[in-house]
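Bug #77: duplicate submission created two jobs. Keeping one. Sequence:
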Amino acid sequence: MSFNLKGKNFLKLLDFSSKEIRFLLDLSKHLKISKYAGTENENLKGKNIALIFEKTSTRTRCAFETAAYDQGARVTYLGPVESQMGKKESIIDTAKVLGRMYDGIEYRGFGQDIVEDLGKYAGVPVWNGLTDMFHPTQILADFLTIEENFGNLEGIKLAYVGDGRNNVANSLMIGAAKMGLDFRIVCPKELEPTTELLNTSLKISKTTGAKITITNDIEEGIKGIHVIYTDVWVSMGEPESVWEERIKLLLPYQVNKKMMDLASPNAIFLHCLPAFHDLKTITGKEIYEKFGIDCMEVSDEVFLSKQSKVFDEAENRTHTIKAVMIATLGN
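Kept job's structure:
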């Protein structure tokens, strides 16, 4: 089954039907096989792509760049200090300028309204590499990884544990509602998703057979689950003063062996990365010195276990982003 998505923005999963998401996932699988087999075609040869990064990244930048290069496209990277967008030039003016020069634009940064304005005024496809509200390309990679391990999405029990209102939790909830998963957010009451987004997800779930549950009870949320997913406790751009409050709230929700033992015997662990699972980072060492904990959202034991599929998940960013670019740019 194929869909004509040429010229369409990829700003949030709410903008796509279940069938369109399925098409992107199937295309991702095909592209991954082609890359491994050495039979990949350059569908984006001659295309020029702008990557706007107001927030730095390893995986998102590398995934967009390798996906573009594999497909024959050329890339211009505009980091936090290279772009005048919103400083000396308005977002709307920047969108119109870049749209005259490039065939597609990726944005990773802050407000969802910024990427929406880029999409409205650029005149070329715009892709959301992460905003404060949504992270849609990540969820495609997550779903591809789940399918590689379980063969399907419908009926899969997926629990997101931690800050239930961040961009990954928001996008997972929408994606799960669209694709028929049994989705739980397991988090402190203070960090539950917004009522508006929850109600939107529940409305979607009535048409797809998905189940959406918000719970503060770890055993209720995790027992028998197929996939346990977590993310960092403090998002990029939030002040350091937030750490103490978040650690106090979320330490009981740390993904460790005790939690994994509540899940299904064949359960897998996912994390969008980077993960604070040891003391091998500057931030990890600082947190240890201030709060006396040697890991945060996930224990080293779980992160390095056979159940952990985080590096498969990270690789899948390239294949799913490639699918989005090909589908929306076309030839």
